[in-house]
């Protein structure tokens, strides 16, 4: 079984039996989500999400649940960020990153069920005063272990700051909040990332230059700011005037407190090198004498995406498998791509399962389309349908779900033609009815049973 479970239910399912509708979670003292999680106190909140303490009513396990409003996602244009955050968190399995257990959703909200870091934010500990050099080193070692692991998975955090560094019940560090993270797929042809993001006091100078940056090197800079903060008790670059602070960052202009040891001064200077080309790398960090003192390689079982990642080993019928995690997008209740479609013309991301061979499904669609003067462009286990008057643009993709079942995904748009007739909805789609296995995936998701 994969680690992350996906569930989509109707909005009424999140309320107590005595309540109806889709309430503001903060307005109720007790609320049970999906009959599984009892929500407790509010732990924190931001512009787009709130985080609650919760308890699994079946196991008694304490978790943190991040609640995101779909309406705010649409308004803020953050649908891709949310999908990316889920994709990133499900691939990370490290002792010093917060674990994502499952994702739940209803018509208005998305719920991230995550590991609860009972020790709270590292930021709260720093406000009580600076750490000793040995304690600073311990937390920095845990931070680099996590960040290096993320980089090995093709993930760049891009917002490393004390508020995103949590502590568990044993006071070990946990990196959280991957909402601004990037992945290898976002790297441009020049080999760089170009999105301006991060928190001002922790952002690398090359990001401010807007000329492109290496995500690994930008993360190392932010880690350097964290180490300085742990040792000094205050930030290396700080000024009420933001432009003055940015000038200091660009020049790498900072001073060490008098208690900083020579070895630590040397080490931090390499981390906060304003030139990314000469800045120390993660591999060099791990070999550095200051860092290595008392360092023990973290041993853990990296739980790969067994059954998650889409496998494509060729054109054989059994080679293209959709997996449990990909099914997150196979329910209209959680289909974030629908936020960007024109509701008047969108097909709504229709999906269904079939026992028919993919080649035969594409062949059937092609035969039907010819009678309606629709151009069919075939590619592997997919096809694109184009109406001659621009009245229809539909893409069809087929994925292997099991040895005997496939998922057919239809996306696109069509406009009414003639006397209000729609080509796909009224003519082509009905002819596929005999190919559908039992009920559609979206219907299964809507009634809370999940995909068959």
Key features of this structure:
452 residues, alpha+beta, Phosphorylase Kinase, domain 1, Transferase(Phosphotransferase), domain 1, TATA-Binding Protein, seven-stranded mixed sheet, five-stranded antiparallel sheet, elongated, disordered N terminus, EC 2.7.11.1, ATP binding, nucleotide-binding
How many domains comprise the coordinates? 3
What would the CATH topology of the largest domain be? Transferase(Phosphotransferase), domain 1
Radius of gyration: 25 Å
Order of helices and strands: EEEEEHHEEEHHEEEEHHHHHHEHEEEEHH
Low-confidence stretches: 1-23, 305-319, 322-344, 439-452
Q: What would you note in describing this structure?
A:
The chain folds into three domains: 5-115, Phosphorylase Kinase, domain 1 (2-Layer Sandwich), CATH 3.30.200; 120-292, Transferase(Phosphotransferase), domain 1; 326-446, TATA-Binding Protein (2-Layer Sandwich). Helices cover 27% and strands 20% of the residues. The chain has 13 helices and 17 strands. The protein has helices at 70-76, 79-91, 122-126, 133-152, 205-208, 215-232, 242-251, 262-271, 282-287, 289-292, 358-370, 423-428, 441-446, and strands spanning 5-8, 31-33, 37-45, 49-56, 62-69, 100-105, 109-115, 120-121, 155-156, 165-167, 173-175, 182-183, 350-354, 374-379, 382-387, 392-400, 406-414. The strands form four sheets. The protein has a seven-stranded mixed beta sheet. Helix 4 runs antiparallel to helix 6. The two termini are 15 Å apart. Mean pLDDT is 78; it is low at 1-23, 305-319, 322-344 and 439-452.
């Amino acid at each position: 079984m994969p680690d992350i479970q996906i569930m989509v239910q109707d909005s009424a399912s999140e309320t107590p039996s005595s309540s109806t509708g889709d309430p503001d979670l903060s307005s109720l003292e007790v609320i049970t989500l999906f009959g599984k999680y009892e929500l407790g106190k509010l732990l924190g909140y931001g512009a787009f999400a709130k985080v609650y303490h919760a308890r699994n009513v079946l196991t008694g396990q304490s978790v943190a649940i991040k609640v995101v409003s779909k309406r705010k996602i649409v308004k803020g244009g953050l649908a891709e960020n949310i999908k990316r955050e889920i994709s990133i968190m499900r691939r990370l399995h490290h002792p010093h990153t917060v674990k994502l257990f499952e994702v739940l959703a209803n018509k208005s909200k998305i719920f991230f069920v995550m590991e609860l870091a009972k020790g709270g934010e590292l930021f709260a500990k720093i406000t009580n005063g600076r750490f000793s050099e040995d304690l600073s080193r311990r937390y920095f070692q845990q931070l680099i272990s996590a960040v290096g692991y993320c980089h090995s998975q093709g993930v760049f955090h891009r917002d490393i700051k004390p508020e995103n560094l949590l502590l568990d019940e044993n006071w070990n560090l946990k990196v959280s909040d991957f909402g601004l993270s990037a992945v290898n797929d976002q790297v441009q042809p020049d080999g760089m990332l170009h999105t301006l993001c991060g928190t001002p006091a922790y952002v690398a100078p090359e990001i401010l230059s807007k000329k492109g940056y290496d995500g690994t090197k930008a993360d190392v800079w932010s880690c350097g700011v964290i180490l300085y903060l742990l040792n000094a008790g205050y930030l290396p670059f700080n000024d009420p005037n933001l432009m003055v602070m940015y000038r200091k960052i660009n020049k790498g202009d900072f001073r060490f407190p008098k208690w900083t040891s020579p070895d630590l001064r040397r080490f931090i200077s390499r981390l906060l090198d304003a030139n990314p080309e000469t800045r120390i790398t993660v591999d060099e960090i791990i070999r550095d004498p200051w860092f290595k003192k008392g360092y023990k390689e973290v041993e853990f079982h990296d739980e790969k995406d067994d059954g998650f990642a889409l496998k494509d080993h060729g054109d054989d019928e059994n080679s293209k498998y959709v997996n449990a995690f990909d099914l997150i997008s196979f329910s209209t209740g959680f289909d974030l791509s629908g936020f960007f479609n024109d509701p008047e013309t969108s097909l709504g991301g229709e999906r269904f399962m079939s026992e028919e061979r993919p080649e035969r499904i594409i062949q059937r669609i092609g035969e039907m389309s010819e009678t309606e003067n629709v151009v069919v462009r075939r590619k592997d286990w997919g096809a694109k349908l184009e109406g001659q008057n621009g009245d229809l643009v539909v893409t069809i993709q087929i994925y292997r779900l099991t040895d005997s079942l496939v998922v057919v995904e239809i996306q696109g748009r069509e406009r009414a033609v003639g006397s209000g007739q729609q080509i796909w909805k009224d003519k082509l789609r009905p002819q596929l009815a005999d190919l559908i296995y039992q009920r559609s995936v979206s219907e299964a998701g809507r009634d809370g049973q999940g995909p068959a």
